Amino acid sequence: xxxxxxxxxxxxxxxxxxxxxxxxxxxxxxxxxxxxxxxxxxxxxxxxxxxxxxxxxxxxxxxxxxxxxxxxxxxxxxxxxxxxxxxxxxxxxxxxxxxxxxxxxxxxxxxxxxxxxxxxxxxxxxxxxxxxxxxxxxxxxx
Length: 142
Fold this sequence. Notes:
mainly beta, 8 strands, 11% helix
């Protein structure tokens, strides 16, 4: 037998309590091997952070994929094609210098990890003293 592939399954709902709400299952999404980047599940702590360290990260965001599918369906009805998002793995890299983060009124030294394709898309601020993740930022089209 071969290895089993992990799959994310779920449902989504748009429109809250509106009579026009949409509720549908999310198409099963294979979860990439390794440590995927999923903005729905922020991490608590990252170990082994050191300047210049780089690695490949596969993004897994089933909710974003579901939203994109609904938008494609809705705008497709009027003949409009939205711009395509970039796909493929991200490169994670720890920036060379620590940066200070204002954390509850104190400036805390942090390592900053940038995840990028062409431009930075996600930043994770990791407290230098113990690896605690203090902040995550998603950067979308400015």
